[in-house]
Amino acid sequence: MVADGANIVSVxxxxxxxxxxxxxxxxxxxxxxxxxxxxxxxxxxxxxxxIKIITGLLHDFQGDVMIQGSSVRQRDLASCASIGYxxxxxxxxxxxxxxxxxxxxxxxxxxxxxxxxxxxxxxxxVLGISEHRHRKVGKLxxxxxxxxxxxxxxxxxxELMILDEPVAGLDPESRVLFKNLFRQLAxxxxxxxxxxxxxxxxxxxxxNIGILGQGRMGYCGSMDGLRERVHHHxxxxxELVEQLNDIQMLSRxxxxxxxxxxxxxxxxxxxxxxADIDAAIDKCIRDVLGAGMHIRSIRPTHPSLEELxxxxxxxxxx
Amino acid sequence: xxxxxxxxxxxxxxxxxxVMMALWVGLPVMAVxxxxxxxxxxxxxxSQFTALLVGSIGGLLTSAMIVVTILKExxxxxxxxxxxxxxxxxxxxxxxxxxxxxxVIIAALLAIVLSASLDAVINDHEVVDTITxxxxxxxxxxxxMAISCSVGLLIGVISNSMLVxxxxxxxxxxxxxxxxxxxIIMDIGEIWMAVLLSAAITSVMLIxxxxxxxxxxx
Lengths: 318, 218
Description:
The complex is a heterodimer of chains A (318) and B (218). Chain A is built from eleven helices and 14 strands. By secondary structure, chain A is an alpha/beta fold. In chain A, the strands form three sheets. In chain A, strands 6-7-8-3-9-10 form a six-stranded mixed β-sheet, sandwiched between helices. In chain A, strands 2-1-4-5 form a four-stranded antiparallel β-sheet, covered by helices on one side. In chain A, helix 3 crosses helix 4 and helix 8 crosses helix 11. The longest helix of chain A has 16 residues, at 172-187. With 218 residues, chain B is mainly alpha-helical. Chain B has one domain. In chain B, 81% of the residues lie in helices and 0% in strands. Chain B is built from ten helices and no strands. Chains A and B meet through helix 2 and helix 3 of A and helix 1 and helix 4 of B.
């Protein structure tokens, strides 16, 4: 795997151990350019370790990571400045004000004084924390500090944003703000690589996911690819107008494997893995109408990332 | 570029810190108070006593402050946001050393000027003459403080425990910094030898700190 134009990050055969504890065992994956990449896995799987290696914070490891075609082992000034990093917990020296902190980080990332000032105003506005600009970092709440962390990560307009659990500990409003921001950053041409435990958030915004388990990448690709990989049951939610007493009638439809009554007139029909879902729905509609009943709604349902993840991990694939 | 930026940044933090404020006010006050409280000071000019005192106590307090600062910043992972940027680890340490050393030099000079002024009033001397005559003592004090600061830096880098770090500074730093006065006490060298010795010890400590910090996984 070599980082090419399509991939901004290429992780190649990473091995990392902490004393006697192996954490990463031949971890390899690519992060497509301009994607929103959700990095998930159980606690202690090595997500933060991987992120620290990609950002160059850990250098005692085997394997390599290429960012824009350059190895993290030979980081130059330009490659450092092209990364924006938000740690799991943002910490800064308490004596700094938000403005001072952003000024320092912006200038260390190669920005000029006037640009830093202007850009600081912009990012604080986007994150809704302009009123905290002259407050000391030590006086901020955890959520606001996380936003300041996000501000320093995006201040210098990096091409690659690496975010470790960015929405953990945020209130629902701020989570929505962050998710919209990630979408906007990707739209503007940045690549957003983030780890999270909140699978619904990953599902909401990521167009690529990576599942880390036992030190290796269990799955890396799109959500649709994951669905195919786990052979998740195809499901259809059916709502009838009339009360149906004979549930067996639905079970007799070819390709239906199980039927579950959700509420009075609502049913979940699960189809065999190899079933042609469109033909099966067509047959289902004809049978129900043929029995003299009426359909209020019928729609296929998609398993959530949580369900897919659990199927995947329970199946021993991670 | 990053060294000068980091130096100004660290200076900005230190000169307004409570510890540094206490040092700037506390060191001159402590020097004057101890001069009158300690009976063995009879016959020694207050300014000379102050110069020696700030060299040892000022250096000790500063090295302890460096250890506490570095250990706290390591523990809280403050350096991560610097190190993902085009910042050299060497510059992070040097900026801290230079900023703290500059702050403690100012504190020491304030203490010496105050005591020289009191000396002048008590003994009816000119303040400028008194300070000029203190050249050697001031050089010794600054040399001792340079060693203390560099020892604090090294211990901050290698230690992972606050308690161990402070104990090492209390026992090791102070002893090492007093090496510079040996050539004078033993009457085997001139003042420049003491300054040279201090520069050599400080440089070795700084180089060791930088090398270890570069290898260390924070």
